[in-house]
């Protein structure tokens, strides 16, 4: 078979001088051996098979050069040959379901290169020659040390500690059951949340990395609780009401960062795009919160007043004199009376 194909290849090589300037790159796939790649729906290569010579017969029958294990493919479905223009050509051999390229069934034959994806039955394929260029190797940012039981256990511990802190801060009846329910709920939600991300990681990244997703979840939950508590203490100590009035935006930013790290673990090669997407999503959600607050009570803040009451010992700002307080109340009363009179 190789002796039969060597003559036309020599003729094609000698005829390249009169061809268009882009023809050498387009005919590079003619330099064998050739690799037939079976692709998943997302474009990931599922299987590779090397063939040494043309023509390449494809189908379900065992006498083919490449066996298509697909009930919707014919016994002798298609053949790959060298065309007169120096390109590989894929020709249908009269199959019932045909060959589909870009959602259209080809009628006779199709000129293909290393990036042409076709479907035979339910199987997506492409053919690449030995000279096909591959992309440069990716920089490994996987952080292999943060995989397995150690980061997963650390994430669960962080989630449990955050849940215990919330249970203690909200305990006004000395109910001991909450100290078991809160950590159990945090752990269960964390396992479910990280499990979904691990499934996606296994689907698109070949490895589950459940431990790392658990660690991201634990850090995010601890950050949400910690930022909420810190904002409350600082707002009460220095009368910075905006820290609690816009606390939801800090929560949105924290969730966006956590989602970014989840996505970057699944597809680390798209970190820049993921940062832009998560940032844009955080801005969109914050804008919707501001608009919702304006619609509900005419203010962009989450609360009409600071709902934090802590021990007086934590106050760091000077107390407001009674006279100044009365003046502020009087000014407020005038504004309210003017608003009421205008409404009448």
Could you walk me through the main structural features you see in this protein, from its secondary elements to its overall organization?
- By secondary structure, the chain is of the alpha+beta class.
- It folds into 2 domains: 2-129, Tumour Suppressor Smad4 (Sandwich), CATH 2.60.200.20; 149-320, no CATH class.
- Helices cover 49% and strands 14% of the residues.
- The chain has 9 helices and 11 strands.
- It has helices spanning 2-14, 23-26, 149-169, 178-205, 210-238, 242-245, 247-266, 271-297, 322-343, and strands at 34-39, 45-51, 56-59, 66-67, 78-82, 88-92, 99-101, 104-105, 109-112, 118-120, 123-129.
- It has a 6-stranded antiparallel sheet, with no helix packed on it.
- Strand 10 (118-120) and strand 11 (123-129) form a beta hairpin.
- The model is unreliable at 1-21 (pLDDT under 50).
Give a brief outline of the structure:
Helix content is 49%, strand content 14%. It has 344 residues and is α+β, with helices and mostly antiparallel strands.
Q: Taking strands numbered 1, 2, ... along the chain, how are they ordered across the largest sheet? A: 2-1-11-10-7-8
The major pleated sheet works out as: 6 strands, antiparallel
Oligomer: single chain
| Overall tally of domains | 2
Low-pLDDT runs: 1-21
What order do the helices and strands come in, and which of them pair?
Elements: H1 2-14, H2 23-26, E1 34-39, E2 45-51, E3 56-59, E4 66-67, E5 78-82, E6 88-92, E7 99-101, E8 104-105, E9 109-112, E10 118-120, E11 123-129, H3 149-169, H4 178-205, H5 210-238, H6 242-245, H7 247-266, H8 271-297, H9 322-343
Parallel strand pairs: 3-4
Antiparallel strand pairs: 1-2, 1-11, 3-5, 5-6, 6-9, 7-8, 7-10, 10-11
Helix pairs in contact: 3-4, 3-5, 4-5, 4-7, 5-7, 7-8
